[in-house]
Amino acid sequence: MNNLMKSSIFSVAVHKYAMFIALIFIAVLFQILTDGVLLAPMNISKLVMQNSYILILAIGMLPCILTGDIDLSVGSVVAVIGAIAGTMIVVKGMPVGLAVVLCLIFGLLIGAWQGFWIAFMRVPAFIVTLAGMLLFRGMTMVILDGNTLSPFPESYQFVAQKFLVDIPLFASFPYSTILVGVLVAAICVYLEWHSYRQKIAYGVPTGSRGIIFVKLALIAFISLFAAYWFTKFKGLPLILILLAFLIAMYSFLCSKTVLGRHVYALGGNERATLLSGIKTKWVRFIVFVNMGLMAAVAGLVFSARLNCAAPSAGLMFELDAIAACYIGGASATGGVGTIVGAIVGGLVMGVLNNGMSIMGIGIDWQQMIKGLVLLLAVAFDIYNQSKK
Amino acid sequence: MPKVLLDMKNIIKEFSGGVRALDKVNIQVREKSIHALVGENGAGKSTLMNVLSGVHPYGSYQGEVLYDGEECHFNTIRDSEKKGIVIIHQELALIPYLSIMENIFLGNEKECRGVINWGKCRFEAMKLMKRVGLDDLPDIPVNKLGVGKQQLVEIAKALSKEVSLLILDEPTASLNDDDSEKLLNLILELREKMGITAIIISHKLNEVTKIADEITVIRDGRTIESLVKGKDDISEERIIKGMVGREITNRYPEREDVAIGSVCMEVKNWSVDSPFITGKRTIDNVSFYVKRGEVIGIAGLMGAGRTELAMSLFGKVYGKNITGKIFKDGKEVKVNSVAEAIKNGIAYVTEDRKGQGLVLLESIRENITLPTLKRLASQGVINEHKEIRVAEEYMQRLHIKAPGIYQKTSNLSGGNQQKVMLARWIYANPDILILDEPTRGIDVGAKYEIYCIINELAKQGKSVIVISSELPEVLGVSDRVYVMNEGRFVGELSREEASQENVMRCIMQSNAKKRVS
What we know:
The structure holds 2 protein chains of 2 kinds. By secondary structure, chain A is mainly α. Chain A is 77% helix and 0% strand. Chain A folds into 2 domains: 43-146 and 155-162 and 237-350, no CATH class; 175-236. The radius of gyration of chain A is 22 Å and the shape is globular. Chain B folds into 2 domains: 4-244, 3-Layer(aba) Sandwich (Rossmann fold), CATH 3.40.50.300; 263-516, P-loop containing nucleotide triphosphate hydrolases (Rossmann fold, 3-Layer(aba) Sandwich). In chain B, a hairpin with a 7-residue loop joins strand 13 and strand 14 (281-291). In chain B, helix 4 packs across helix 5 (147-160) and helix 14 (414-427) packs parallel to helix 15 (444-459). The chains are: A mainly alpha, B alpha/beta.
């Protein structure tokens, strides 16, 4: 019996962390295949910067997938936001701060537009966002008139391209990255400890103390080591701070708030959620408004990173973001998935891309391999589910 | 005595994780007999039938299956169907948008090199439909038929496969008394005319005692006993004793004399139009009241409009052009959304717990707190620890049997699922609870527990409205019974007056009146 328990706990763990384990495996594999280039400090920074916009999109996409919907328009929204930013800043010379705020508002409006049709008019999300994909791509071309706008001023590129030491305040302080590492470790340890105390206060069973200590030590070690590793190149990329903030915030939103729970319930059984007095239409609407906002953030980051606004920006981004969610364990029928899972899924694809690029494997092969990874990851997930 | 057609010997079936669903089960079915398989939910009836029909392939279980004297090694459903063993599951396996004849011949098409011969199809379908008493055209889609007729389509489908042993899993669970009776007569007729042997799995013991020649009782994966009509006592009490291992002397707990208080909710002149068929009035000028501490029942046949009434009261989830007034403690209240209904202390526990009640992907805990999350949160952030405590408290209070609050509700038995639904709404602390078919498809033991919960709620001063298709249940739990027929309330009976005869009389009289006018 004890053995049985152990093996079932083990299998649960394997199932829960399968993609994370796969990510580590892939990373180690490419580390070997690329003779240590993959995990070198410089490449890690590059990896984060290259994938940041897909990860931001995945954060917005996950709630859409949780409610059982999908958003195919985000690639085009990325492009149109870039085009608007380019027109406002490069052509009209508007202040960067104002332009960024206007772009974010425009993203919210796009989300509200699509959310209106999906939530209140009950047009399937697939169709609304397919229409949006064409609509916003066309809008991009109209705005840019076929041209590519560049360059953006330095201040616009800041978040996407710079490092912590580039901020004047930290410029003379080489240990700032380490400091952030310490800070993150401290916050994580505090939160874990706080939850442990709360559990005791409410009489909820806690895990054994030993395991908690191991967990805390591991968290502290990883954040400190990561900080140390970044200092070996230029320090912490600023985009990572934004990304970490978004991941933490949306993980919290999804798992700890009423709204998050309503999103999961809506995806699991819409009728039951409605009969529990939850305004399902508004929940769905909010999810799409949020997707619009995230797409706008990704659009800003992407145009800043490439330092241009191009008509073809963001092509196929929606598919990468959707794939990230599915690889990360989200269910196509809704109700299942996590933000962290989607991030891991996005990183799996990012590492594959990056690793294969370093090895000189052509884009043609990369596409095929990515396709197979998506298929196998989801098949593995379904196999695991059916086994239970 | 006729020969044994099916003999299953010492069947043992284990699922992964060491759960032994069947433990040396034996069952013998005689040719041209109707054999009933009864047992509580989770006793192993469905698993046994899945072994027989090849859903669980040969090798995944131990024991022998002898059919017509031959040992059988079925690997798929097709193998068993070739032998003439056809199973009709509780959830019908019809394709809603395909026609009756397409459904009948699904997987068994009348074809010639892949091209369907529609003429032959139609001809054969008509023949089969006539045999089961379906008088519709063979090319109307099955979703246009009622559940009763869909059941008949399933049987026609089985007949098209040259069935010799027909297995019916809860065939009458979602049928009204009239349709149930027809179906049971059909089974008897098929035996007389075509020599078809049948196994029936059913919770409705009155039906079992009526038509079965032999009854096998299963409990906890074991065969308890086999009762033969004419030889053993096959009364309902006797069967229940076998099923639960003890005698339930009283199937409904005694209603204690609780003080019934003032009128809690009153509904006046409530009318609702169907949202699907324009001009059709589903609820017609209904007025009723319920007092504090009172349990009222709404009796009526399938399609009388009971569920529609409940759902239109519960924040107008059903219907359009709704007119009428709802009073709560004498004051008129507006109930235009589910949220408003909950705010006004109305709760509705749906009849369709899987489709409209539970979020099956989620755990017991998340299902219990779904409508009340805001109460457990501050500034939109859930206090999880408090939530866990609530979930654990209610799991204990309602005796939900599960390894823990983190158990997914899809893994629970019907009775426990129902209790999760009740826990959800009891925690919401409403004044009025509308329970729609609270015991559908759950076993005798769990039913009794649910009745006790209903009594307990009334004792706390809540008003409970019970809607049920099982007349004895409505009569057994209610203080007062309203009779509903075709969208109207056609009778109000006190506890003393309420009997099956009186309820049926109300319905018949209203039908007669209608015909005259």
